[in-house]
């Protein structure tokens, strides 16, 4: 770390500390502002490559879910109107 008194007039390069963990092992790195875009692109590539093992979320059919939602809304409005 530089002393502010000795760096007067010099341009200071700010750095970003990045940490990651997998539950067992922790790693960290320091990335300069010049390398930030390259680091993010590489990191995104790694994440996308590892997401192939994820399971796709099961989605409900919109046609089947719509009548059920309408029934819930009707019951809720009836409860509100019958309340004193």
What's the quick description here?
With 84 residues, the protein is an alpha+beta fold. It has helices at 36-50, 62-82; strands spanning 15-21, 26-32.
Descriptive notes:
This is Signal recognition particle 14 kDa protein. It comes from Camellia lanceoleosa. This protein is of the alpha+beta class and 84 residues long. The chain has a domain at 10-44. It is built from two helices and two strands. The protein has helices at 36-50, 62-82; strands at residues 15-21, 26-32. A two-stranded antiparallel ribbon has the order 1-2. A hairpin with a 4-residue loop joins β1 and β2 (26-32). The longest helix is centred in the C-terminal third of the chain and has 21 residues, at 62-82. The radius of gyration is 27 Å and the shape is elongated. The N and C termini lie far apart (68 Å).
Task: Give descriptors for this structure.
single chain; 2 strands; alpha+beta; two-stranded antiparallel ribbon; 2 helices; 43% helix; 84 residues
């Amino acid at each position: 770390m530089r002393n502010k008194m000795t760096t007067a007039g010099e341009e200071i390069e700010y750095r970003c500390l990045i940490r990651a963990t997998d539950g067992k092992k922790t790693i960290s790195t320091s990335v300069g502002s010049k390398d930030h875009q390259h680091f993010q692109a590489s990191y995104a590539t790694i994440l996308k490559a590892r997401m192939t093992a994820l399971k796709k979320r099961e989605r409900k059919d919109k046609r089947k879910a719509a009548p059920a939602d309408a029934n819930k809304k009707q019951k809720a409005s009836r409860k509100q109107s019958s309340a004193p």
